Q: What sequence folds into this?
């Protein structure tokens, strides 16, 4: 399994239940592909570098996880169709591979 980082941004106006549902969906997608989540680091509300969909702030969350490379496309697809997620980025971390 390879190590990855996922950083995603949701609107700061989103309620806690919706934010928890997004996290649950990400956890389920990773677990369905036999991946493991190592660390979840909620960064909180931060100013965006540029305006996205009339938003100037975003609520950031960083997730470190291990997964098979074939499962990353499915995780990317799930994040793209999730309306609450404004932006996301998945990065391979070869320095943390098992």
A:
């Amino acid at each position: 399994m390879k190590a990855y980082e996922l950083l995603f941004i949701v609107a700061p106006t989103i309620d806690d239940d919706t934010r928890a549902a997004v996290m649950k969906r990400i956890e389920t997608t990773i677990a369905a592909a036999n991946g493991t989540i190592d660390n979840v680091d909620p960064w909180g509300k931060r100013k965006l570098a540029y305006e996205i969909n009339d938003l100037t702030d975003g609520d950031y969350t960083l997730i470190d996880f291990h997964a098979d490379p074939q499962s990353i496309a499915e995780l990317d697809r799930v994040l793209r169709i999730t309306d609450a997620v404004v932006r996301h980025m998945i990065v391979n971390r070869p320095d943390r591979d098992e």
Remarks:
- DSSP finds two helices and four strands in the chain.
